[in-house]
Design goal:
Elements: E1 5-12, E2 15-22, E3 27-32, H1 38-45, E4 52-57, E5 60-61, H2 67-73, E6 74-77, H3 88-91, H4 98-103, H5 120-136, E7 144-148, H6 156-173, E8 177-180, H7 184-190, E9 193-198, E10 201-205
Parallel strand pairs: 3-8, 3-9, 6-7, 7-8
Antiparallel strand pairs: 1-2, 1-4, 4-5, 9-10
The chain binds adenosine-5'-triphosphate.
The site of adenosine-5'-triphosphate has 10 residues, from helix 1.
Length: 211
């Protein structure tokens, strides 16, 4: 189950020569100063900006697929999600299960809410639910997740709930996940490996074992 996500000599902006392999189901945390290129690296992996190098999901090279098909499997959840519909249910083409909604603190009624009323944290949680629901639609296809500070707008209790929910999903589905995070506590909780952007290079940092 699951396929590895491999980055080969990936380069965007000042950040070049990124070689990294994430095993199926592995969470790897990425940190770096503001403006060091974390979001751009995720955008390059999702093929949303011109870049150097190649990315692979299992045996499938990014360049061998039309961009929209790659992005449907290598799913970016940006720090600020984009909303195009008036109501939550129109935006979530694939409705998350009741259990998943509940795990992230929502009752079913949320599907009928207007997007305009959503708080930043509600938007962030719904964007995660949406990404997972879309990938779950095709359980037989390999997939990967790119999460850009997925708990940045959440309080401590909800942060822990999101971490637990994501860890369970990623473990079950075998999706390799690149997770941008700043909090050393979170990094230690969710990832076995931690890379930091330092002087336009990726440097591995120690992290405590997965607990
Ligand atoms: N399309 C672009 N063309 C040129 N430079 C860009 C482009 N998009 C972003 N940048 C610049 O690249 C640098 C890295 O931006 P990025 O958004 O990846 O930073 P970040 O590490 O995610 O920062 P933060 O933690 O503040 O979100 C920034 O200096 C930004 O201004």
């Amino acid at each position: 189950m699951g396929e590895a996500l491999r980055l080969e000599a990936l380069g965007i902006g000042a950040l070049v020569g990124v070689d990294l392999t994430l095993a199926p189901g592995e969470v790897l945390c990425l940190s770096g100063a503001s403006g060091s290129g974390k979001s751009r690296l995720l955008r390059a992996i999702a093929d949303l900006e011109p870049h150097e190098g190649e990315a692979w999901l299992g045996d499938t090279a990014r360049s061998s697929l039309p961009a929209h098909r790659w992005r449907a499997r290598v799913m970016l959840v940006p720090a600020e999600s984009h909303w195009w519909a008036e109501r939550v249910e129109e935006h979530l083409a694939v409705a998350p299960s009741e259990a998943d909604l509940a795990a992230l603190g929502f009752a079913d009624e949320v599907l009928g809410w207007e997007v305009a009323r959503l708080s930043s944290g509600e938007k962030q949680r719904l964007a995660l639910l949406r990404a997972v629901a879309v990938l779950d639609e095709r359980p037989d296809e390999a997939a990967a997740l790119l999460l850009d500070e997925p708990t940045a707008n959440l309080d401590e209790a909800m942060t822990r709930a999101v971490e637990a929910w994501l860890r369970e999903r990623l473990g079950e589905r075998g999706w390799p996940t690149l997770w941008v995070a700043h909090d050393p506590g979170q990094i230690a909780r969710v990832a076995k490996r931690h890379w930091h952007i330092e002087g336009h290079r990726l440097v591995e940092r120690e992290t405590r074992p997965w607990q």
